[in-house]
Amino acid sequence: MPPILEVDHLVKKYGDFEAVKGISFTVDEGEIFGLLGPNGAGKTQTISMLTGVIEPTSGTAKIGGYDIHTDMDEVKKINGLVPQDLALYPTLSARSNLNFFGRIYGLGGKELKERVADVLNVVALTERADQAVEKYSGGMKRRVNIAAGLVHQPRLLFLDEPTVGVDPQSRNQIFESVQQLNRERDMSIIYTSHYMEEVELLCNRVAIIDEGEIIALDTIKNLIAMLGGGVIQIGLTQVDETTLAELTALQGVQQASLAPQPTTLPAEDDQEALEPERKHDMVKIECEDSQQALVSLISYLNENDLNISSMEILEPNLESVFLHLTGKKLRE
Amino acid sequence: MKAISVTRKDLQVFIRDRGAVFMLFLLPFAFILVLSVVGQGIEFGAESEDLLPLVVVNNDPQGEAAQDYLAALEDTHTIEIIEEEQGDVEKRLNDALLGQALFIPADFSADLDAGDQATLELRLHPQYDQAKVMVIERALVQASREFLMMQYLNQGLEQMREMQAANPGADETFSEERIRQQIETQQVMADERPLIVVEETTPAKPDEEELNLPTFGQHIVVGMAVLFVFLGAMNTAVSLFREKSLGSFRRLMAAPISKSALLFGKLLANFVLSTAQIVVILITGGFLIQFIGVEPLDITNDPLGLVVVSLVIALCATSLGIFIAALAKTEKQVSGLGSVLLFMAGLLAGSFVPLFMFPEGLDNIARVVPHYWANQAYYGLFFRGQTLLDIWQYIAMLLLFSLIFYGVGLWRFRYE
Predict the structure, then answer these.
(1) CA-CA 20 to 30 A from A59: which of A116, A252, A325, B331?
(2) Please, where in chain A does CATH 3.40.50.300 lie?
(3) Which CATH class is domain A5-221?
(4) Residues 48 to 77 of A: which have CB under 8 A from any B CB?
């Protein structure tokens, strides 16, 4: 079966600033695909190009076999977009909102009525469908927001940060709805988030995106396997190449290296910071077995009388994968 | 059909917005009722201390009738006569340095003495303010009637004197009934066969019989209709801004609806609301205000003209909305700065105080705002007895404003 989405070197520039830097990926029919990255990484820009909201600067994509440059009208019928904003009319009821968006997709009469009833059922809001949206809780609004993207039965649904500002109960409800749509209706879903737990729970494959580039793309299992048995980050004084080699040789350790340092220059009056030698180095220790590595590491540091300024043990997950790849946390 | 869906949705949103409903329908209603009651005692052109200057070229300076006519004109208490030389006046008129001048021909008194018709020439610059033209015309008609009445009475009395002289024994010649009959006969003659005719060079010349200066209440109906319909442009602008801030534009752009259909649907909703607003205001001014003792506006002069002018004004106000939305950066700018500017434009264009009461020169500045042309179009229909064909230039100006607003709006408007 051909992929529902094929993205080929998609670029978006604003003057000299390149928001999306030639990304390429495919999404299979019936797949839940995650776009994971921090705010400003280029996830929304990518979705905007694929849904016809903005024009790409260069590159192209095919959705359901239709080119986004030449067949956008067909592409729009296949796509469903659930934007990050609550793109609803607050004074209208959920049913009126859904009726409106359904009509925009050319639905009417009995068919529209049935579709609206169906999506209200999917997001579990049938009972309160005739109440003004402004009277809903944040989670309920999010669910109506999702329903508005479903009313025309899209084949490919773009969910852009759909759980921002949502209470845990509604978040679970949204997860269930997403899984139900994928499982029972074979809907392909692109799910963007900066919450790695959500992506880990829902997605088959994940593209990790940062500063407009895809820096890793694989199944969650394979991505986490990159870290082996986890990562220990430790702040030490006076680390040199010999120390790093000795740390790498410890039992349970796969690789020891210096972690990237913040690039911000110190203030001129900060004499301490201006000294030529760094007081502390952050050492990243990739482990085969984090427990075993920790024991041997403590022993080594005691024997060599090295001072520890900080230490963090990162369990193998997408958050630590992102940290491992970029030196930054997802929510920075 | 998708554009109609947008229109339908916008109307649903509007109906649920109590503030907007109040602003669009109840506020102008309240303004009209309050201002027309407060201003009931005001009659334009009657007791004004600021007389309208009228340049007069009297080519019959020795003629008794010419002198009497000018005296009658001054007695209207609306005109200040400024006598000047023909050559200088002609030059200033040709150079567009003068808006109006009245020419009294050399044989004016001789013609009237002989019982022939005499013609006065009122030369008007095409761009001269129509409201001031109305004041001058009204004064000329009033002066002509008073002057001719005196002339006919004198003639009638002279005839009776001659009859008495011919029949000194007839007691009934000077009876009260006889005198009354003679006065009535002269009155009929004055109306049926006016001896003084005023010729204008103004293209849109109204019928003298239909000249009708508005009462303050009537003026306020027109002024508020124009002011509030253009204030409705803010609703258009705010509605466009809210679509952006809600993110619904983004969702709609991902749907199979073109930007032009989307914008058209939104503008159609506001066009419908503006039209409904005009209907409500005109019903108030043309019918309802009589129940509070205020003379209603006669809106029946040219129904086709009224419909066309109202639709064009609604179109212009709607286009102004997208223009404002395109230039403003925030919704606060629209509702704050926008309302102040639109109120000022209405004030400048004579929506509160009629233009003919403005100081000389200020009325020319008013031409830069569409409110001015809207006011002029309604004034033409309601108070100058003009029809659609007579006011085409005002409609053309409103359409031109609409085109500019819509063009700039489409060019500058950002959907995100």
Answers:
(1) A325
(2) 5-221
(3) alpha beta
(4) 48, 51-54, 73, 76-77
Reduced to 3 states (helix: H, G, I; strand: E, B; else coil), residue A262 is: coil
Least confident stretch, A1-15, A91-105, B153-167, B294-308:
B153-167
Residues of B in contact with A146 (CB under 8 A): none
Altogether, the residues listed in chain A come to a count of 332
Residue A286 distance to chain B (closest CA, Å): 43
DSSP one-letter code for B43:
B
Give A282 or B402, the one with higher predicted confidence.
Answer: B402
Q: Please give, rounded to a whole number of angstroms, the shortest distance from the CA of A72 to a CA of chain B.
A: 9
Q: pLDDT at position A273, please?
A: 47
Residue A157: closest C-alpha in chain B: B254
Are A76 and B9 in contact (CB < 8 Å)? no
Percent of chain A residues past pLDDT 90, beyond the cut: 47
Percent of chain A past pLDDT 70, that is, above it, reads 93
Q: What is the C-alpha R_g of chain B?
A: 27
Residue spans of chain B under pLDDT 70: 39-50, 94-97, 125-127, 168-176, 182, 186-187, 189-193, 201-213, 356-361, 416
Per-residue pLDDT tens digits for B100-155: 889 999 888 888 888 788 888 888 866 577 778 888 888 888 888 888 777 777 77
Chain A nearest-CA distance from B233, in A, is: 20
Distance, in Å, from the CA atom of B281 to the CA atom of A260, rounded to the nearest integer, reads 71
Domains of chain B: 2-41+214-412 (no CATH), 52-210 (3.40.1710)
For A231-315, CATH gives: 3.30.70
In whole numbers, what is the pLDDT of chain A averaged over residues? 86
State the average pLDDT over residues A106-114. Answer: 93
In chain A, CATH 3.30.70 covers: 231-315
Q: What pLDDT is stored for residue B403 in this prediction?
A: 94
**Does B13 sit within 8 Å of A87, measured CB to CB?**
no
Long-range Cβ contact pairs of A219-227 (< 8 A, separation 24 or more): A220/A318, A223/A318, A223/A321, A224/A316, A224/A317, A224/A318, A224/A321, A225/A316, A226/A321, A226/A324, A227/A286, A227/A314, A227/A316, A227/A320, A227/A321, A227/A324
- A197–chain B nearest CA distance, Å: 26
User: DSSP letters of A19-88?
Assistant: EEEEEEEEE-TT-EEEEE--TTSSHHHHHHHHHTSS--SEEEEEETTEETTT-HHHHHHHEEEE-SS--S
pLDDT tens digit sequence for B206-244:
444 344 567 778 888 888 889 999 988 888 888 888 888
| Of residues B8, B16, B253, nearest to A53 (C-beta) | B253
Length of chain B: 416
Contact by Cβ (8 Å): B334, B328: yes
